[in-house]
Amino acid sequence: DFIVSPWEDNSVDFLAENNAKVIKLASIDTSNYQFCEYIASKGIPVIASTGMTDYDQMNIVWNIFKDANCPMMFLHCTSAYPSPIEDKHLRCIPVMQKMFDSDIGFSGHAIGIEGTLGAVALGANVIEKHVSLSRKMSGPDQAASLEFNEFRDLIKMANNVVIALGEDRKQFLPSEEVLHGILARKII
User: Fold this and answer.
1) Can you tell me whether residue 173 is helix, strand or coil?
2) N or C: which end of the chain has fewer CB within 10 A?
3) pTM to 2 decimals?
4) Could you give the C-alpha distances from 161 to 38, 81, 124, in angstroms and in order?
5) What is residue 168's DSSP assignment?
6) Residue 31 confidence class, pLDDT cut points 50, 70, 90
């Protein structure tokens, strides 16, 4: 589906008139409470990036959308292009999940994939990742983008992380039977 970040009221109106399924709120506008109220009044589900915001600001935004009965979720991110690995602070994801009792996604503004894979391991199931035909092209997002072959690999790895997370109960697994049969201590 086509998801757009509007920058002013007229763009929000255009998206509403054209039956947008989701609106993406850019980090710079997540603390623009008047704009958040206007978007929330449309009742269109919102995905809000949280770069340049703190927990108190997120709480205000959460309540704006809750009071308007408008579905929304946050994407944890760092608004730097590209963002350094040490500025990812992925431990914010479980804090936000607990604060809002909600899914929390991740917007990775880096060349690498470590942040995204870590976010997936922490439970982020909505991911925003910039993709480009070539990082050599001009533009503000190119340095923070993956090329399509890298993006394909990231999707495969992220899906494997989800599979590897498995279940939260520890038990004897069928894949362990062979080695157990060979190495288990027995009285004969």
Assistant:
1) coil
2) C
3) 0.90
4) 38, 25, 11
5) S
6) very high
